[in-house]
Amino acid sequence: MSLAPRIVGLETEYGITVVGARQPETGPPLGADEAARYLFRKVVEWGRSSNVFLRNGGRLYLDVGSHPEYATAECDDVRDVVVQDRAGEAILVDLAEEATARLAEEGIGGRIHLLKNNVDSAGNAFGCHENYLLRRRRDFQRTVEQLVPFFITRQILTGAGAVRETPGGATYCFSQRSEHLWDAMSSATTRSRPIINSRDEPHGDPDLYRRLHVISGDSSVAETTTLLKTGMTALLLDLVEAGGRLDDLLLADPMRAIRDISRDLTATTPVELVNGRRRSALELQEEYLERVLAHTAGMTLRPVELEVLELWERGLRALRTGDHSLIDTELDWAIKQRLIERYRAGSGAGLADVRVSRLILAYHDISPVDGLAEKLRERGLMARVASHEEIEAARTTPPQTTRAKLRGDFVAAAQEHRRDHTVDWVHLKLNDASQHTVLCKDPFASTDARVDALIAAIGA
Ligand SMILES: Nc1ncnc2c1ncn2[C@@H]1O[C@H](COP(=O)(O)OP(=O)(O)OP(=O)(O)O)[C@@H](O)[C@H]1O
Ligand SMILES: [Mg+2]
Question: If you ran DSSP here, which 8-state letter would residue 219 be given?
């Protein structure tokens, strides 16, 4: 036996800023909205839209706000999720370089920065959404509700780390997003609302599938953190879909817990459960891991699944023992904390020092020139999952074992023959006289004779 196949995709919104642009004589300085339009100018030129599907099956998108978004294609392996997500970063890095060059040409100057974090300088929160395919069943709402404590406690492993300034001084916490979710939660009518978007849009056969749309996670910089975040969730979903129960672990006050857990770097302060017991985030995560281990005990797991389980266990051990060196090249909050502490030791800067804030921004800056992540990787201070070659290839190559392959092949053929086309997650359409459209309802299907015919018609 093995895990049930599952589609996973990651959407990431990026913060955008321009540094050093010439102040125009009239009007306001170049803002994020305008910078985002510069960023997307080339995309709009070739896609005639700020919402395009790419040869790698993913989606590049600029909403009315100013946060460019990249959504990975459908993956059936969380290692592919990591590779496709990093390919999206690489695509955006190039767009930012080109937009910066254009700003120089137009005499505006300045440099565009893209930040893979979750709050911008104006205090607006934006997200990294995870998508997991579920088989449709009648008790979706209950399934979702019993997952809430998992999503709230997993930040002790997968949080991106943040400095929180308080009247009593600055402190380090697990997650930037948690503070903002806490605000959002005050008005939530169901437990799950700020954690899971319950809109029923499966991007697949609605009779068979639902898509779990998790909106509470931090964006991850380290590839290993992305791997753990999506991998541990997929493992737990397998347990739940096989009938495993988690509702003895429901939190009495999830809204408080999300904030309190983020602020307790020991992860050992108990929070109250619905059943009156008290458990810490660490104990709850140990319990989830134990149940997943019991669930998967007789199964043949893939190497990536074993890797996820090993990192999950080691992350909890690091918290249990206080020995963060066990994970401080793999989990964002610990990598970042080590970076900050080293800097402070050398400079004497306090946690709230503006130089530390800049260091943190550089941690999230996806540019290999301005940002720190690639430098940390090169120095062995941030672990890699994917090779440079794999990431480069994934800019134009879709995952080969899902519907993404059909979409990617179609987009590539249409682009090569300059044929006008319209694509979304389930449709492939040629905008010619025949308006030929193929509906791809099965996200697991990577071959389809109808799509072959459509592609053949393009080349004919
Ligand atoms: N059947 C599916 N199950 C799970 N995930 C899917 C499925 N089909 C597509 N996905 C993934 O879901 C994500 C959809 O991204 P997209 O940004 O379009 O999200 P959305 O929630 O539909 O729309 P929006 O961001 O505009 O609100 C992608 O990462 C994609 O790979
Ligand atoms: Mg989206």
Answer: P
